[in-house]
Specification:
The chain is mostly helical and 148 residues long. The chain has 2 domains: 66 residues; 50 residues, no CATH class. It is 62% helix and 7% strand. Strand 1 and strand 2 form a beta hairpin.
């Protein structure tokens, strides 16, 4: 009988430990869910302001189209052709470094130096009298050709 009491006592202890472990696990899961929800809320920006701005822009575009259509019909008496979209800002074109190169037929030709390969620039530099052309980079070689 003493053995049965010990077994019951140890079984009760094991059962209590298992209940404590289940309680701890449930608490850990709840904490993990809370943290995940908090992290998801932080990492995702609110979409509502963006949706409102998009709706406002769409409404403004519709109003502008109606105004343009009404003004075009009033001026010409017919429906206008849609205008091509224009860019508000057109970036400046890059400057072109050109040099005059004699062609084999005797005429001079203008060549864009930045569009040339390094091999072609080295050949051009040799014809202009630049020495040690193999040691220069493309940019330095263009400068040397312009100076020559």
């Amino acid at each position: 009988m003493a053995d049965q009491k010990k077994l019951k006592k140890s079984a009760a202890k094991a059962y209590d430990k298992a209940e404590d472990a289940v309680t701890d696990a449930r608490a850990a899961v709840a904490e993990a869910k809370r943290r995940a929800k908090k992290l998801a809320k932080k990492s995702r920006p609110s979409v509502k302001p963006l949706e409102n701005a998009l709706d406002d822009a769409a409404a403004g575009l519709k109003d502008a189209k109606k105004t343009a259509k009404g003004a075009g019909e009033a001026a010409t008496g017919a429906s206008p052709t849609p205008a091509e979209p224009r860019s508000i800002y057109t970036p400046p074109l890059p400057e072109v470094d050109e040099t005059t190169v004699p062609r084999p037929d005797g005429h001079d030709a203008h060549v864009d130096l930045h569009a040339q390969t390094l091999v072609a620039l080295r050949a051009l530099a040799r014809t202009k009298g630049v020495t040690n052309v193999s040691r220069y980079t493309k940019a330095a070689l263009i400068e040397k050709i312009e100076q020559a």
